[in-house]
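Lab notebook, bench 4. Continuing the backlog of folding jobs that were queued last week. Each job is logged with the same field layout so the records can be merged later without manual cleanup. Today's entry covers ribose-phosphate diphosphokinase, a 334-residue chain. Filled in by technician R.K.

JOB TYPE: sequence-to-structure
TARGET: ribose-phosphate diphosphokinase
LENGTH: 334
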Amino acid sequence: MTSPHSVEAAPAVFLLDDDSEFFEALIQHLGTDLAPFELRDFEDGEHKLRPKISVRGRDVYIVYRLVGGQELSANDRLVRLLFFVATLRDLGAACVTAVVPYLPYARKDRRTKFRDPLNQRYLAQLFEAVGVDRLVTMDVHNQAALENAFRCEVIHLEGRRLMAEAVMEERDGLPLAVMSPDTGGVKRAERFREMLQQMSDDDVNMAFLEKRRSEGVVSGDAVIGELEDRLVVIMDDLIAGGTTMLRAVEACRHAGAKRVIACATHGLFASGAEVLFERSGPDRLLYTNSVPRPLPEKANERARLLRIEPQLARTILALNGQRVEEPDPPLGLV
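JOB STATUS: finished
OUTPUT FIELD FOLLOWS
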């Protein structure tokens, strides 16, 4: 595979996250050092980011997990990314790829109330305005809405292989079923079910939970599908307050599930998510480090972190025209 952009120099990969473990793992899997940059924060809350190497004529990749934390909000991180992209274009970068495992505002992709905003579309317009050529992201809430909103090239990664391999380790001989916690996630859950079925060589049941959300209140608990005496895997894109996932876990147990594993690529773990680690929570919770957020204080050994650095590195190398072993290539790299 060859890059669509003809450049003479090797690509530059910047990691804007202040996370030493993530930094070292990305270096290891890329097989090269990351590009250096200078960051200065000013007393009034403003900042300055500049690369410490030349980017003229080069492909550039910026890896940044856009989720709010104690020091920076999601908006703070977003502004840093946008300004840095614009800076790199001003300095002559040939192609700028934003590698954003968790894409903020992606859940607001349609109007559900009168005069609602379309935040994902506005985010796409900002990316386009500063000169992003390509977006790499992971398990967005609605892939079709993402591709409709962004006019640049979009590479959509999925965490399903990571999750499926972990589930197979937990299986202990039980028959399997996959459940979507709502009708909107059925296609995602079905792709995951197909992968589990390939790995297990057994029939894997499919189910979904009826769910309605209005004014932030979730209702509906009817299970459509056969779950009795099975290991049920609930597949969702993210966990925020945990309400949706907990309702799904309880519904699975009422439907006769033997064990319940909750899977979500993005573990936001907002206020209230600690209920997932109480007795009523899942037997196991699988999530990735797509967002740098700590587990709730009540979290216990039931939570298992799956790391995405190898997948991000393989994607960057493949986009740069290098042959890599990719067992589950994302759309756009096949």
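OBSERVATION: The chain has a mean pLDDT of 90.
SIGNED: R.K.
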